[in-house]
């Protein structure tokens, strides 16, 4: 289709990425209506002895919107707000207080404030930042999965199960490993190549990675193995670059990894829903961007040489080079 087709796929992906913010309200409304149709009436409940006829029925909220609100409260209302208050209110406020008490350039002010700031940062990071980061990551993982599974069941039905628990575990571990390697690859390209070429390729890879994050829950529930998921993204890269661009830009606005992580965790549930509802453009280009090929080859080599024998490697990685190449052709 040429440049015009690539641009159209990119713009459609960009548009689809925002659909989750609109779809979530519709999912909640339709979920409540569906419950109302299948729930017994107040009168029937009274006859069955379940409730009093004068007891008002509480409006039931869908699981999706509840989890999204919980994510926003944990990551934005608690974690992000505490970081902003400490870094941009408490520390600057104490700095100005010491300037007022001891003067700006006095030796006493510099020494005392240097030590107090160091102690405060140590206490803050040790007792709050690190534990909160770990706890939020664990909670977010469960909430993201709940949001994805609930949205998938509502719009697409029952998820497809993996053949075995061992394959499920192996696919998950291998996927995480590949994502880590891909992040390292993107950063290396950014540092090695000259600006702006390196930065553009860095951003392109981040958009693909963020698209993988958003669609992986859906594809996982559809029973797709990792090599199928990666091959599909490489084959239809124009759409996925557009889809992943908004989340990539929003998480790159701050230089702080903590703040960027909080922003990601607040917005990510909406993009999960967008990915669940989206229908990728599949005929934009015949060219495949093979950004994942290097990390797949490295990951295969690592699991085969470090973890165990070739037989274990085959059951762990779930994707040899031949299967990976075949999947890329099939998904075109």
Describe this structure in words.
The protein is an all-alpha fold and 332 residues long. The chain has a domain at 2-26 and 140-330. 79% of the residues lie in helices and 0% in strands. It has 13 helices and no strands. The protein has helices at 2-16, 19-38, 42-47, 63-102, 107-156, 165-192, 197-221, 226-235, 237-251, 257-277, 293-307, 310-317, 321-330. Helix 7 packs across helix 8 (226-235). The protein is globular, with a radius of gyration of 25 Å. The relative contact order is 0.14. Mean pLDDT is 81; it is low at 41-61 and 310-327. Keywords: Membrane, Transmembrane, Transmembrane helix. Belongs to the EI24 family. Residues 33-58 are annotated as: Disordered. InterPro entries: CysZ/EI24 (IPR059112). It is a multi-pass membrane protein.
Provide a concise account of the structure shown:
The protein is mostly helical and 332 residues long. It is built from 13 helices and no strands.
Total DSSP E strands? 0
Radius of gyration: 25 Å
Described by the principal axes of the CA atoms, the overall outline is globular
**Fraction of residues in helix:** over 70%
SSE order, as H and E? HHHHHHHHHHHHH
Nearest-integer average pLDDT:
81
Quickly give the structural class.
mainly alpha
Which properties best describe this structure?
Etoposide-induced protein 2.4-like protein; 13 helices; single chain; 332 residues; 79% helix; globular
